[in-house]
Design brief:
The structure is a single chain. The chain is of the alpha+beta class and 82 residues long. Helix content is 23%, strand content 21%. It contains three helices and three strands; from the N terminus they run βααββα. A hairpin with a 2-residue loop joins β2 and β3. It is elongated and about 55 Å long.
Length: 82
């Protein structure tokens, strides 16, 4: 069984060994980047994004259009004020 690890490193080390840390991320690990030993960022693999449109939905439901943008075109927003 594979267990991902979290590595912690200060900015200077990450900067000097960037390829090394990116290789770790590509292998499934994550890297917490610190500034003066305080965490400021986390590098993780983007991997294959999960399909959020299928989680918890009836398989028979079809979704048409963009779920993350506005439903009504911005040039028609004025109709909402009336």
């Amino acid at each position: 069984m594979f267990h991902a690890m979290t590595h912690t490193a200060n900015i200077a080390l990450v900067k000097n060994q960037f390829s090394h840390f990116i290789a770790k991320v590509q292998n499934g690990d994550s890297v917490v980047v610190c500034a003066r030993n305080k965490p400021v960022a986390k590098i993780i693999s983007i991997g294959t994004p999960e399909n959020r449109t299928q989680v918890g939905f009836d398989p028979g439901v079809e979704i048409f259009g963009e779920l993350e943008g506005p439903f009504i075109p911005t040039d028609q927003w004025k109709m909402l004020a009336d």
